[in-house]
Every structure is written in C-alpha cells, then in structure tokens.
Write a structure and sequence with these properties.
single chain, elongated, four-stranded antiparallel β-sheet
Length: 163
C-alpha cells in the first residue's frame, strides 16, 4: 500500500511581481553605474525585458519546484531538477528566513552543515502546515516553528562543522 503524498506548488503572482521588480531595480542600477546613457524609450524596453524575463523565470520555478509532504518526511527542490528528502526524525533545527521578502524554512539534520530550504510562499500554505503537523510529534522543531509566535531557533556555528 502506497503512502499518501501531498504536493504543494509555489505561488506565482506575488513572488513573480516582487522578483521582477527587484531584478529590474538591480539591473537598472548596474546600467546606471556603468555610465550607459539611454533615452527614455530604451529604458522602457530594457525594463520590460527585465520584468518579462524575471516573470518567466519565476513561472519556470513554479512549474518545476514542488514541495512534497509524506508520512516519512519532506521533499523540497534545491534546484528545479534536484530534489532532497529529509526524514522527519532527522530534522534537528528549523530556522525561518526572510530573503528579500521571500520566506523560507531552513531544515537542518543533525550534524549537517547545510540545510534544506523549503519555500513558504506556497499556494496552499494552510494545508501544508496541517499536513506537517499531522506527520510530526508535538515536540518536533518543525511543529514549534509552525506557531506564529515561535521563538527563533538558537544560532548555530556551521563553520566548525564543515569538513
């Protein structure tokens, strides 16, 4: 008998708009620092191409990156075609991270210097948390991190663990 698996896709519109705007601002700043003089029409075309490119990249990520929750653990893409799986009982530390407005959970297994980044900008975030809470015990770090007033996880020194 197979285990039930829930797949969660990333949201598109909100993150795509933020990512597009951040990309446009970054590249416009780089173009201006380089001293390139463009007329108004060329700036408009450059901005439109940047916004379109960022939106297409975000659309590709939405299509290819799915977070999976199973009774055995969680699977999340590190890159669109490379998926990592982390069993529930191996998760030792959970940290919330806000990276330029994009919220993530970073899940660390015991004695591992690198964590699995799980995006929290999911289409059905409430269902994701219900599934996670149904799979982990009450004292699990992931369940504690799910609470809105969760205390931040203690800092960890990953430099001494890397070998």
């Amino acid at each position: 008998m197979s285990q039930p698996i829930c797949r969660f896709r990333l949201q598109f519109l909100g993150p795509a708009i933020r990512f597009s705007i951040l990309t446009a601002i970054l590249f416009e700043g780089l173009i201006r620092l380089d001293g390139v003089l463009l007329d108004h029409g060329a700036w408009l075309v450059a901005r439109l191409f940047l916004l379109l490119g960022a939106a297409l990249w975000m659309g590709l990520l939405v299509l290819l990156c799915r977070v999976r929750v199973t009774p055995l653990g969680i699977k999340s893409p590190d890159w669109p075609w490379i998926v990592r799986e982390l069993p529930w009982d191996s998760i030792a530390i959970v940290q919330r991270v806000n990276l330029l407005g994009f919220r993530f959970l970073v899940l660390y297994a015991a004695n591992k210097p690198f964590g699995m980044w799980v995006p929290l900008f999911l289409k059905d975030g409430d269902q994701f948390w219900r599934m996670v809470k149904g799979c982990v015990p009450l004292d699990h770090p992931l369940r504690i991190a799910a609470e809105p007033d969760a205390a931040p996880a203690p800092a960890r020194d990953v430099g001494s663990e890397a070998s």
